[in-house]
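Quick one:
INPUT:
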């Protein structure tokens, strides 16, 4: 499994959005500037996030994006699957894949399954709120309080 630029940038943008959209929507231009990501690329990413029901948008002068759910209930896995699709480590473990004809005799399948399960457990155990706390720990100039 390799997380693409779309997944990495999307996750960073979601952390940024969660931090800065607590009081008002945030424009993609602002996120792009803070995160040093192309605004055109963010438009593609946020179209997927909106389709995945993770973000909402508000039009107009004071418009922009905001989270559709609280950060403590948005799992990192949910964000990455929204942007990347199936994140299995090998194709034979992907949900959409037909059953591998060598399933019963493959000597490496148990290894791939264990790695896949470990990755899934790790991604399930982190929420957007966990990443916000980490961001604020690393940069105490960010808005908000860790006890919010």
């Amino acid at each position: 499994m390799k997380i693409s630029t779309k997944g990495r940038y999307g996750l960073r943008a979601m952390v940024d959005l969660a931090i800065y959209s607590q009081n008002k929507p945030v424009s993609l231009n602002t996120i792009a500037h803070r995160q040093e990501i192309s605004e055109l690329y963010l438009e593609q990413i946020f179209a997927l996030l909106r389709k995945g029901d993770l973000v909402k948008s508000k039009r107009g002068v004071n418009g922009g994006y905001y989270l559709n759910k609280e950060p403590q209930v948005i799992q990192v896995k949910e964000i990455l699957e929204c942007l990347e699709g199936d994140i299995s480590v090998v194709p034979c473990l992907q949900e959409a894949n037909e059953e591998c004809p060598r399933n019963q005799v493959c000597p490496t399948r148990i290894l791939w399954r264990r790695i896949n399960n470990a990755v899934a457990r790790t991604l399930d155990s982190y929420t957007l709120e966990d990443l916000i706390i980490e961001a604020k720990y690393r940069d105490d100039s960010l808005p908000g309080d860790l006890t919010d």
